[in-house]
Amino acid sequence: MKVLAAMSGGVDSAVAAARAAEAGHDVTGIHLALSRNPASYRSGARGCCTIEDSNDARRAADVIGIPFYVWDLSDRFHADVVEDFMDEYAAGRTPNPCLRCNEKIKFAAVLDRALGLGFDAVATGHYAQLRSGADGLIEMHRAVDHGKDQSYVLGVLDQSQLAHSLFPLGDTNKTAVRAEAAARGLLVADKPDSHDICFVADGDNAGWLREKLGDRATNHGGDIVDDATGEVLGQHEGTVGFTIGQRKGLRIGTPAPDGKPRFVLDIEPVSGTVTVGPRERLAVDRLTGIKPRWCGTVPEVLEGPDVTVQLRAHGDEHRAVVTVRDDGVAIELLDPAHGIAPGQAAVFYDGSRVVGSATIAATQRVHT
């Protein structure tokens, strides 16, 4: 097959490209330029978006012996990922930009262009596995290394995208990948993984959002209030500095009567009110999901002992019943979850298989 290997400049994508070439595919490497001014995004060689990363990817392609190009997708990335991130936070929601990047950039813009150029598939360094199902469809499953499993951020991919995707690292753990990179002479073998949001240069999400949102009406200060009493406990500089479940950085002078820490329970961006309370008030057992995306056949109901929902990258799995509706999905959590915010993604599993995903629109607290 003709394969386009997306090379971020990190060790995972370099080994994935090398494996694809070694498997006999006709591989071409590409690096995505996601900012016209890379210095405005994260600085330092961290595995995404910087000039150093582009150079690392090029050197890896040279070692592997494959052609290499840089594709400028900065305008598309800013419109579909960065702007979406700002809009969601301004509305009091907590988005996951990595899912949006996979959906809109890596497996939409890149894959569409690749197919248009005559490539058969796009290979990435994501940790997930693809298998042929009994119904002839392509199934996506968790990686062998559950600690590195990235199927959660790939839960937005549909069947047409999975049919043209390769994940060469799904059967390997990270230690083995680094050892393989060193054995292949890839200089990125010991390069640190990236963890922060790539377009927030210093990792200060709240500060970045305040600067970028500027004078947007929902980016004003407001009160921090107690959930039980309605007492105003303090003020803040903008709701974008908070997310549901947050404990640190509240700067509340008045301690709780029981001496226990308070957590953010609710964010109201129009009034600027941030409501805080005890951890037990964070427990939710009902979720409403919108904009569902299915990896294969659309189910009517997902239920059974192996059906789970994951609500954060590398988060816990929660046993659940998922009912598909015309306007989205209703999710009943048999194992309540804590600190779940609108805007996060709910990814549905049947055992290790990814069934689909949805964006959380609303949550309902456990009645106590």
UniProtKB/TrEMBL annotation:
<feature type="domain" description="tRNA-specific 2-thiouridylase MnmA-like central">
    <location>
        <begin position="214"/>
        <end position="277"/>
    </location>
</feature>
<dbReference type="Pfam" id="PF03054">
    <property type="entry name" value="tRNA_Me_trans"/>
</dbReference>
<feature type="site" description="Interaction with tRNA">
    <location>
        <position position="344"/>
    </location>
</feature>
<dbReference type="InterPro" id="IPR014729">
    <property type="entry name" value="Rossmann-like_a/b/a_fold"/>
</dbReference>
<keyword id="KW-0819">tRNA processing</keyword>
<feature type="domain" description="tRNA-specific 2-thiouridylase MnmA-like C-terminal">
    <location>
        <begin position="285"/>
        <end position="360"/>
    </location>
</feature>
<dbReference type="GO" id="GO:0005737">
    <property type="term" value="C:cytoplasm"/>
</dbReference>
<feature type="active site" description="Cysteine persulfide intermediate">
    <location>
        <position position="198"/>
    </location>
</feature>
<feature type="disulfide bond" description="Alternate">
    <location>
        <begin position="101"/>
        <end position="198"/>
    </location>
</feature>
<dbReference type="GO" id="GO:0002143">
    <property type="term" value="P:tRNA wobble position uridine thiolation"/>
</dbReference>
<dbReference type="InterPro" id="IPR046885">
    <property type="entry name" value="MnmA-like_C"/>
</dbReference>
<keyword id="KW-0963">Cytoplasm</keyword>
<dbReference type="InterPro" id="IPR046884">
    <property type="entry name" value="MnmA-like_central"/>
</dbReference>
<dbReference type="Pfam" id="PF20259">
    <property type="entry name" value="tRNA_Me_trans_M"/>
</dbReference>
<feature type="binding site">
    <location>
        <begin position="6"/>
        <end position="13"/>
    </location>
    <ligand>
        <name>ATP</name>
    </ligand>
</feature>
<keyword id="KW-0808">Transferase</keyword>
<keyword id="KW-0547">Nucleotide-binding</keyword>
<feature type="active site" description="Nucleophile">
    <location>
        <position position="101"/>
    </location>
</feature>
<keyword id="KW-0067">ATP-binding</keyword>
<keyword id="KW-0694">RNA-binding</keyword>
<keyword id="KW-1015">Disulfide bond</keyword>
<dbReference type="InterPro" id="IPR023382">
    <property type="entry name" value="MnmA-like_central_sf"/>
</dbReference>
<comment type="similarity">
    <text>Belongs to the MnmA/TRMU family.</text>
</comment>
<protein>
    <recommendedName>
        <fullName>tRNA-specific 2-thiouridylase MnmA</fullName>
        <ecNumber>2.8.1.13</ecNumber>
    </recommendedName>
</protein>
<feature type="site" description="Interaction with tRNA">
    <location>
        <position position="126"/>
    </location>
</feature>
<comment type="function">
    <text>Catalyzes the 2-thiolation of uridine at the wobble position (U34) of tRNA, leading to the formation of s(2)U34.</text>
</comment>
<dbReference type="GO" id="GO:0000049">
    <property type="term" value="F:tRNA binding"/>
</dbReference>
<dbReference type="GO" id="GO:0103016">
    <property type="term" value="F:tRNA-uridine 2-sulfurtransferase activity"/>
</dbReference>
<feature type="binding site">
    <location>
        <position position="125"/>
    </location>
    <ligand>
        <name>ATP</name>
    </ligand>
</feature>
<dbReference type="GO" id="GO:0005524">
    <property type="term" value="F:ATP binding"/>
</dbReference>
<keyword id="KW-0820">tRNA-binding</keyword>
<feature type="region of interest" description="Interaction with tRNA">
    <location>
        <begin position="148"/>
        <end position="150"/>
    </location>
</feature>
<dbReference type="Pfam" id="PF20258">
    <property type="entry name" value="tRNA_Me_trans_C"/>
</dbReference>
<dbReference type="InterPro" id="IPR004506">
    <property type="entry name" value="MnmA-like"/>
</dbReference>
<feature type="binding site">
    <location>
        <position position="32"/>
    </location>
    <ligand>
        <name>ATP</name>
    </ligand>
</feature>
